[in-house]
Amino acid sequence: MSEFFLTRRQLAFAGGAASLASPVAAQGKLTVGEALAKVRQAIGASADAGAEGLLLGAADQPVRGVAVAAVPTAAVLQAAAKRGCNLIFALESPLYARPGEAGSGYPPGSGARAAAALKAEPVYRGKAALAARLGVSVVRLNESLQASRPSLAADTLAARFGWSGGETAGQGRMYAIKPAPLSALLRQASRLADRGGLRHVGAKDMMIRSVLVVPGKADVVPSVQGLQKADLLLTGDLREWEIVEYVADSAPAGRPRALIALGRTVSQQPYVDAIAEWLKPVLPGVPVTAVRNADPFWRLA
Amino acid sequence: MTPRELVARIMARAEAEGAPAPAQPSRRDTFKVGDPDVQITGVVTTGMSTLDVLRRTVAAGANMVITHEATFFRDDDIPDFLEGDPIYAAKVAFAREHGVVIWRDHDLTHRMRPDQMFEGQLKLLGWTADAAPPEQRMPVVTLPKPMSLERIVRHVVEKTGVTSYRVAGDPKMQVRRVAVGVGYAMPSFQVAPDIDVIVGGEAAEGSDSQLPTYDLAAFAVDSTALGQPRGLVLLGHMGTEDIGMQVVADWIRSFAPEIPVQYLPAGEPFGAPL
């Protein structure tokens, strides 16, 4: 776990010392640390939230191009480099999890031990080596951006379905939509979830008039409370023995509700595209592009 | 016999089989609704006490449900966020109207050795776990001969009958060693050496997970991309834990023969994919 905090501390002085240390930066090229400082300033965040920050790479590296992605997989690193990008802003961690332990329910120290073990794994070492070989840095940026632009993730996913005019509701946004059967919305959803992570609960002929949109992972309390008003929860990922049971109980209880789970990564792609657009004026002169993660899941044909 | 007496008998039997009650009583394994002092007409075991299961329980002439998962939509079963909720109200009203008593049997099933959930799932899949040290909770299966991930998927899908499963990894990868998970109890790829594939219930995507839990799908995708093919097969929570409650039903029958006990699977909550 300590490496995360070391890299964040390095980042804290990157904007000053690193710009002097880097010859390219001295010629006027933005460094990774400076780019992050500009993004932080635009967000209005003075420091990284949670497990955000530079997780792979170097703060004094001059930035040639910026890629935005949901999950910084090896394939994303390669795709970014192929497009001339050497800084990735990612929603998720390259280490596959958060290092934090507070309230995790695990024994004290187990998170740090697991982080050290995972970093010693050939897979993580291989990815870190790939990043070094490609000269790509990875910054996790999620909670502070979400706090700063709370409606962006839901609005951009909703827009892919043709919905607008949402209102904030719990973790997400509520949309009144032109009535449509669940089957029609599932067909739209299947065009986003290209390989098989899509799941649903509810009768396919159920008419949907209102939707609670929660990209990423839906938590039980705000989702259940939102479903008291919405016909459908459109989300990425969720716990099956909590929200799913609630939706499954709704039809027998005479108050049918429906659920579409796109998969976390798939549900975040429209948000990723929007972040890339938002970053362009924040980092003028730096090429910014969105890199798409493939749906990690598939099913038999 | 009353539900309270049956639960006391279950706990005594578990202790006799080497699974004594923990010093801190389980917060999950408690009565959720109903009068635990009525006479039992019949017992139903199930993976999840959905309203549909409660209806089938009443239709079967039973009045006690022993469920592995929560009744009130959150792991702690505390309904403080459900005040005024019509679905919660309908579920409670149905149980009260029909005199249904619900008791959760979660932590005990996992405390038993062998763990009753893994016992059920391994039997369903037709697999035998390798010998393992006692501290290794999650079973590992070494297949008699390697087979492709696609063939593994066809096998487990046929055995469980689920349709909303999800798979990560290269379908053509060769699999020799499989780590098995149930429900949200998922092994990592590091649970034992040389794990090729994890076959389990559900696992969170992304980095919301707190270590030692991590995004298994992203790890499998990266491992494959970096030259060591690995796979993940998610059969869903009920695709892996319903069946363990059949083990529980058989077990209860063995020491409470005077009451009728049947297993009613909750079934996969998801609809068939388009």
TrEMBL record, chain B:
Binding of a divalent metal cation, residues: H68
Molecular function terms from GO: metal ion binding
UniProt-listed Gene3D superfamilies: NIF3 (NGG1p interacting factor 3)-like
Pfam families with a match to the protein in the record: DUF34_NIF3
SUPFAM superfamilies: NIF3 (NGG1p interacting factor 3)-like
Source species, domain of life: Bacteria
Keywords of this entry: Metal-binding
Family recorded in the similarity comment: Belongs to the GTP cyclohydrolase I type 2/NIF3 family.
Protein's recorded name: NGG1p interacting factor NIF3
Organism: Phenylobacterium deserti
